[in-house]
């Protein structure tokens, strides 16, 4: 159908004279400054729960092993110094509590998958601390291990970071509800890459400002994301996908919650079992709390207290 000058004029007149039609016009999308607000003596406490399930299947369809790991961890980031322009110049990252629960299931002679007993251990990152200091002359961060095992995976990754606060999922600019954007590829590689993991050869990130939600008097911008990483697994490409949302506190300028699902699949050759199909699935939830450096950290749970008592008893 072609629009004529008369029909367009008639439609405009109808819209102006009939209140019901005029009120249906959509309001302009709200603009939000999507940038983290950093202040001196700010303490960010991230409490995370990471659940990963790995399933190995033979070519005949038989599952030979399933491994499930649940890791609960408390990471504290302290902003110790901030420059006049608001950028951080001294940051400490430490891990105050953490446990890893592992359940391994093995196929028995009757072809049944038998779940093993859960094994809970203290996280190797517990008690570790890394200090990041900005060197203005070199225009680079200097990372120092203050306490802990430098070979522990998360500690090692922290020590190799180019920027301890960089987050490629936050564009550091104004966005409107409905806006879409791509994350920086190199930023994704630096953020998700790890010295102990296969090298990230390719990374893409699609994000969208979905909506503004209100909870307990605070407003949050919900941002959806889909991250696809291509890893070099001994010469073979392994694609890992992460989908989820993060909730950004608009007034405070801080991420309050991250929820995501992860998945990856790989075919490999075993010298004795032959071809294997490996599927990896996981969920990650990170809830952030904010306070001041010097404030007491979250009290350990009863289970954590019992764990520390057992460790003390064994050492004694």
Helix content: 10-25%
Counted beta strands: 15
> Uncertain runs with pLDDT below 50, 5 residues or more?
1-23, 312-316
The dominant shape is globular
Distance between the termini: 87 Å
Number of helical segments with 4 or more residues: 5
Feature tags:
316 residues, mainly beta, 13-stranded antiparallel beta sheet, two-stranded antiparallel sheet, 5 helices, 15% helix, 55% strand
Overview of the molecule:
The N and C termini lie far apart (87 Å). The protein is mostly beta strands. The strands form 2 sheets. Strands 2, 3, 4, 5, 6, 7, 8, 10, 11, 12, 13, 14 and 15 form a 13-stranded antiparallel β-sheet that branches. 15% of the residues lie in helices and 55% in strands. Residues 1-23 and 312-316 have low confidence and may be disordered.
């Amino acid at each position: 159908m072609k629009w004529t000058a008369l029909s367009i004029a008639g439609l405009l007149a109808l819209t102006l004279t009939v209140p019901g039609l005029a009120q249906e016009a959509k309001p302009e999308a709200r603009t939000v400054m999507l940038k983290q607000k950093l202040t001196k003596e700010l303490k960010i406490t991230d409490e995370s729960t990471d659940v990963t399930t790995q399933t190995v299947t033979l070519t005949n369809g038989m599952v030979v092993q399933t491994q499930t790991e649940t890791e609960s961890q408390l990471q504290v980031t302290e902003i110790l110094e901030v420059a006049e322009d608001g950028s951080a110049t001294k940051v400490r990252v430490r891990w105050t509590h953490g446990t890893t629960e592992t359940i391994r299931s093995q196929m028995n002679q009757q072809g049944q998958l038998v779940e093993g007993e859960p094994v809970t251990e203290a996280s190797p990152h517990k008690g570790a601390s890394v200090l990041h200091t900005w060197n203005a002359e070199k225009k680079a961060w200097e990372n120092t291990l203050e306490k802990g095992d430098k070979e522990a995976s998360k500690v090692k990754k922290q020590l190799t970071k180019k920027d301890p606060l960089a987050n490629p999922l936050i564009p550091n600019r104004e966005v409107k509800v409905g806006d879409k954007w791509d994350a920086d590829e190199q930023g994704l590689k630096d953020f998700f890459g790890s010295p102990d993991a296969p090298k990230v050869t390719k990374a893409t990130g699609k994000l969208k400002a979905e909506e503004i939600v209100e909870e307990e008097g605070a407003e949050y911008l919900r941002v959806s994301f889909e991250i696809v990483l291509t890893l070099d697994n001994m010469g073979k490409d392994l694609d890992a996908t992460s989908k989820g949302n993060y909730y950004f506190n608009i007034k405070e300028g801080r991420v309050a919650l991250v929820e995501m699902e992860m998945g990856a699949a790989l075919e490999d050759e075993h010298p004795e079992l032959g071809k294997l199909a490996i599927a990896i699935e996981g969920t990650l939830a990170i809830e952030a709390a904010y306070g001041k450096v010097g404030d007491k950290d979250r009290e350990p749970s009863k289970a954590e207290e019992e764990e520390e008592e057992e460790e003390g008893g064994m050492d004694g």
